[in-house]
Design goal:
Elements (H helix, E strand, L loop, with lengths): L5 H16 L8 H30 L3 E5 L3 E4 L2 H7 L3 H10 L4 H6 L4 E3 L3 H15 L4 E6 L7 E5 L2 E5 L4 H4 L3 E3 L5 E5 L2 E7 L2 E7 L2 E13 L6 E11 L5 H5 L3 H12 L16 H24 L7 H4 E6 L6 H12 L4 H11 E4 L10 E3 H7 L1 H22 L2 H7 L2 E2 L2 E3 H8 L2 E4 L2 H11 L1 H6 L4 E3 L6 H7 L2 H11 L21 H26 L8 E6 L8 H17 L8 E6 L7 H18 L8 E5 L5 H7 L5 E4 L11 H7 L3 E4 L5 H8 L5 E2 L4 H10 L3 H7 L1 H12 L8 H8 L12 H19 L2 H13 L6 H13 L6
Parallel strand pairs: 1-4, 1-13, 4-12, 13-14, 14-18, 18-19, 20-21, 20-23, 21-22, 23-24, 24-25
Antiparallel strand pairs: 2-3, 5-6, 7-11, 8-11, 9-10, 11-12, 15-17, 16-17
Helix pairs in contact: 1-2, 1-4, 6-34, 10-12, 12-13, 12-15, 14-15, 15-16, 22-33, 23-24, 23-30, 29-30, 30-31
This protein binds ligand CRA.
Length: 809
């Protein structure tokens, strides 16, 4: 299909404005113009979508189904225009119509249907699957409200609802003809019919699942995939007779119960909440999705026995684990297969990605809740569990291993074990993480079925996270590598390594970074009123607030710098700006206290004249995809300082590296692969290794001793305890680190153990910064070697090692 020209695009947008809003361009608001542009892009992608589906059907290609409760898409306008090769035309058309393109892009709200890494990963993967021309569909829930908007009031986080749909809806294509029905509660009984036994599930509540599709355009391809978001609607019409009887509330009760399912995304990252509504969300989207996939397979005229040859279902963590019993239910209850056949197909079609080893994130549903809400699924899970247990028993003859690998155990259903039993593959998301799964978390399962355990290191959409958000860097890469081929072959960036001693190139790199810093400083001033010094180091830690990510380690170190500066006003020679951005789960009190602390410290430093021009701490409100897009190109230091063994991969680390920031980090998650590419000399590594963390905890960790022995640390912790000029004391955080409180052991994440080494790494980093040539050279090596972290590589790995699908090379 022909590309837009500036004129055709301008005409199409003008038409949309008139048809949908009855307005001429000069009268349209920015929100209206965003919606009109979105509709124009959507139409274009939708046409290609029809062509893609026809082709896939004809060729009988294997399809990938990517199920995730989160897809953190962010903004789509610039992305889609970019992928369609129309970004230049869009810029021109908007300018011709009297708009400032940057303001129009800025007016699009983020589609923030995710919490952090896991949801953003799904968004990057759907882009790469499309670009690599893999027939794939993403499935999730069409939440009304995405992750909350964060406001900082008196230094503390306040959560506000995020109604992204007002504008975001323009991307969605409702597909009521594909509606599915999902039953909750009710009773199950056997019924004999002409000598056949049927399962009858009746009563309870039936909810309608109505798809709203977001069509996804790939880069430099006509291939289009779909992100299918299920909306929840009541089955029964509102009973009008109840209204006339004055029973207003009752009349809408059923409606409200159904709609609440798709109301809001659960805001916990890396944490399991055993809420009944969450289980409802999971089954709702899983059941609708599986019904749809099986139906399409049957409609293509194929027998169910080869279902797995045409379909692979990838589940993003255990949240969609009910895929396993739901496939079994449909195969057995609806298609009449026997158990063995159904199990054989299911276990060859499903693959599970694990994203965390944190115990508090592992899903375990209480049997009572599960049984009441999903009576038929419960029967199937019990049968799966019994058979699995018999198999394990038979293999090991060891009671404690049986207990460890059990699916139903002590009144709980363990979703990870269900996924391992019911799938053909289990993968971790970085080399270290996959190793921990094999050797520790899933050790027994791996002993029994080693062939299932794989690794696929995470990756990011480098077109969005480098080329689109850092256009000057994009131009430089194209110039130095001789073409824009790196956009589809990220390892082409390796060619940059040859310029490591080229003074002109290094100067250009520094110039681009500085310009990005100036741009970000302007943005921060305009949107937040903060004044940043673009001549200081931009040292950044942005990610969800979690104790294992150790923002508190960063803070304690900054306090120690602040104290040093008070003793000696010349102690800091290179001005240093520490930037933080993080949302805390609304119920995670310690995380919220750490946000408060960062703001207290920021205020303290702002009011101390000795710090002026030398030290600054800034907390950026409402960290989200679109803020990351502004900040990352301007960042120089990337803080990736989790306790080794705890961060499954990290993906922010990759985005910073790709934009030339240098990493201060532990050997954790994908930092390990990063270190493999860069060596000690191109990053600032510190801290205990994963096995040393384990060892230290086994041997008995004593943070009090470290507190007593390290005078710098002692003094910084005392200051934290007593608080700063706003009068807020942080004794609770102090206690948590030194003595333990609220049932937690002291310093669970070993901040004190790593403090001294962290301070040294930060000092090495500052000293290197003072030598621009050395710094820029390291920065260039980082960019050059970051191609491994393209999501295209991750998706190629999935296609080769798990999905066995073809892809564009
Ligand atoms: N919180 C991990 O913690 C990882 C992403 C994506 C996480 C990150 O280290 O990069 O997944 N885990 O793989 C998770 O959500 C349920 O577990 C994350 O985003």
């Amino acid at each position: 299909m022909k590309n837009f020209t500036t004129e055709t695009l301008q005409q199409a947008i003008t038409d949309k404005l008139m048809i949908h809003f009855g307005k001429a361009p000069e009268d349209a608001t920015e929100a209206e113009i965003v919606r009109a542009c979105a509709r124009v892009m959507r139409d274009r992608i939708a046409i290609r979508g029809v062509e893609t589906r026809t082709k896939t059907r004809k060729q009988g290609d294997k399809q990938v189904h990517y199920l995730s409760l989160e897809f953190l898409m962010g903004r789509s306008l610039m992305k889609n225009a970019y992928n369609l090769g129309s970004l230049k035309m869009l810029n021109e058309a908007l300018t011709n119509m009297g708009f400032t393109p940057a303001d129009v892009f800025e007016a699009e709200p983020d589609a923030a249907l995710g919490n952090g890494g896991l949801g953003r990963l799904a968004a990057c993967y759907i882009d790469s699957m499309t670009t690599l021309e893999i027939p794939a569909t993403g499935y999730s829930i069409c939440y009304d409200l995405g992750i909350f908007k964060q406001k900082i009031v008196d230094g503390q986080q306040v959560e506000l609802p995020d109604s992204w749909k007002d504008v975001g809806e323009a991307w969605l294509l409702p597909r009521p003809e594909d509606t599915k029905w999902v039953r909750f509660g009710g009773t199950v009984r056997d019924q004999w019919d002409n000598g056949y036994l049927h399962i009858v599930h009746e009563g309870g509540q039936v909810v309608r699942a109505v798809p709203c599709d977001m069509e996804i355009a790939g880069y430099d391809t006509d291939h289009v995939n779909t992100l299918r978001l299920w909306d929840a609607q009541p089955t029964k019409q509102v009973d009008m007779s109840m209204y006339s009887r004055g029973e207003y509330m009752k009349a809408t009760e059923e409606e409200a119960m159904a709609e609440v399912i798709a109301k809001v995304l659960y805001p916990e990252d890396n944490h399991y909440e055993g809420k009944s509504l969450r289980l409802k969300q999971q089954y709702f989207f899983v059941s609708a999705t599986v019904q749809h996939i099986v139906q399409k397979h049957v409609e293509a005229g194929r027998p169910l026995t080869n279902f797995h040859e045409y379909n692979v279902i990838q589940i993003n963590d255990t949240h969609p684990a009910l895929v396993v019993p739901e496939l079994m239910r449909i195969f057995i209850d609806e298609a009449g297969l026997d158990w063995e056949q159904a199990w054989d197909i299911t276990t060859q079609a499903v693959a599970y990605t694990n994203h965390t080893v944190l115990a508090e994130a592992l899903e375990r549903w209480p049997q009572d809740l599960f049984q009441t809400l999903l009576p038929r699924i419960w029967q199937i899970v019990q049968e799966i569990s019994n058979r699995w247990q018999a198999k394990v028993d038979n293999h090991f003859h060891n009671h404690s291993i049986t207990a460890d690998m059990a699916i139903v155990w002590n009144g709980e259903i363990r979703m990870a074990n269900l996924c391992i039993a019911g799938g053909m593959a289990v993968n971790g998301v970085s080399g270290l993480h996959s190793e921990i799964l094999r050797k520790d978390v899933f050790k027994n399962a791996c002993n029994m079925e080693p062939h299932k355990f794989k690794n696929v290191t995470n990756g990011i959409d480098h077109r969005r996270w480098l080329s689109e958000i850092n256009p000057e860097m994009d131009s430089l890469i194209c110039e130095l590598t001789g073409s824009n081929r790196y956009l589809s072959h990220a390892d082409d960036m390796m060619k940059l390594d040859a310029f490591a001693d080229d003074k002109t190139v290094l100067a250009k790199l520094a110039e681009i970074k500085h310009a990005n810093k100036v741009r970000f400083a302007k943005h921060a001033k305009k949107t937040r009123g903060v004044i940043l010094n673009p001549d200081s180091i931009f040292d950044v830690q942005v990610k969800r607030l979690h104790e294992y990510k150790r923002q508190l380690l960063n803070v304690v170190h900054i306090i120690s710098l602040y104290q040093k500066l008070q003793d000696d006003p010349n102690a800091i020679t290179v001005p240093h700006t520490f930037l933080f951005g993080a949302k805390a789960a609304p119920g995670y009190q310690v995380a919220k206290r750490i946000i408060h602390l960062i703001n207290s410290l920021s205020d303290e430093i702002d009011h101390n004249p000795a710090c002026k021009g030398k030290l600054q701490v800034v907390f950026l409100e409402n960290y989200r995809v679109s803020l990351a897009e502004q900040l990352i190109p301007a960042s120089e230091v990337s803080q990736q300082i989790s306790t080794a063994g705890k961060e499954a991969s990290g993906t922010g680390n990759m985005k910073f590296m790709m934009n030339g920031a240098l990493t201060v980090g532990t050997l954790d998650g994908a930092n390990v692969e990063m270190h493999g590419l860069l060596g000690d000399e191109n990053m600032f590594l510190f801290g205990l290794h994963a096995h040393e963390v384990e060892q230290l905890i086994r041997d008995g960790y004593d943070p009090q001793r470290i507190y007593q022995e390290n005078a710098t640390l002692h003094r910084a912790l005392d200051a934290l305890r007593n608080g700063f000029r706003d009068g807020v004391r942080y004794d609770d955080l102090y206690q948590r680190l030194v003595y333990g409180n609220h049932g937690s052991c002291a310093d669970e994440y070993l901040l004190l153990a790593d403090f001294a080494d962290y301070a040294k790494a930060e000092a090495r980093m500052s000293a290197t910064y003072a030598d621009p040539t050395a710094w820029n050279k390291m920065s260039l090596h980082n960019i050059a070697r970051s191609g491994l972290f393209s999501a295209d590589r991750s998706i190629a790995d999935y296609a080769e090692t798990i999905w066995h699908t073809n892809y564009r090379k």
